[in-house]
Design goal:
Elements lengths: L2 E6 L5 H19 L7 E5 L14 E7 L5 H19 L6 E7 L6 E2 L2 E2 L1
Parallel strand pairs: 1-2, 3-4
Antiparallel strand pairs: 1-3, 5-6
């Protein structure tokens, strides 16, 4: 159930969005070690964001997972997601924050219940 939510001030067309969703899904699943069928990615472009007092391309993301996160994994995720955003949206890695949440099963709902 890893879930990655990305907000960016860069407008995103549907083709680029599909590429990012596909690439991020594969990366998150591989790095965390969970099946792609468990991964959810949301991407919200054109959001007003100022970073370091400018509105140059920037992004903020949150990755939530039940287990699978650690300092080493988080570093790999940060690097890989940053690379995807740099390649697809031209957001420099110095203009991207990501926050990681490792949550207990009982704090995540699915299919009318909790995990």
């Amino acid at each position: 159930m890893p879930t990655l939510n990305v907000l960016t001030n860069v407008p995103i067309d549907s083709v680029v969005a599909s590429d990012i969703l596909r690439d991020a899904t594969k990366a998150v699943a591989k790095i965390i070690g969970k099946p792609e069928s468990y991964v959810m990615i949301s991407l919200n472009g054109g959001v007003p964001i100022a970073f370091a007092a400018t509105e140059d391309p920037a992004a903020y993301a949150e990755l939530i997972s039940i287990g699978g996160l650690s300092p080493t994994v988080n570093s790999k995720l940060s690097s890989t997601i940053s690379e995807i955003l740099q390649t697809k949206l031209f957001i420099h890695s110095s203009r991207f924050y990501i926050k990681f949440y490792d949550v207990q099963r009982s704090f995540f709902g699915f299919n009318g219940s909790t995990f």
